[in-house]
Specification:
mainly alpha; elongated; 123 residues
Length: 123
Amino acid sequence: MKSDKINFKILNLLMIIGIICLLYMISGLWVGILNKVVAVLFPFVLGIFIGVIMTVKLISFLFKYYKSKTYSAIYGFSISTIFVIGIKCLKSSYSLIELIISIVFLILGLIITKKINHYVTCD
């Protein structure tokens, strides 16, 4: 008795064996690519990690020995950033509505900061 039906179990098994063989044959390629990606990303990640640690240590040192001067520098950077952004916004082609919305959110941020500072005390 001859069957005209295809045995899908055997076909599926052969496809799986073929895929495994293909992956085994190109496994060296993926390892090489992965090594190159790690070799490129590792210095960046290491640099970011060291930079964050050094910045935290520097700011801790500055707050410990020069607290008022450090606060003054941070306030100065913040205020000068507002002016730099403002000058760049005036030179670019933003619409009046976008400028008004940004000013409203600036004022809203100042109000929220005042409210938060009312409840939180600094040492």
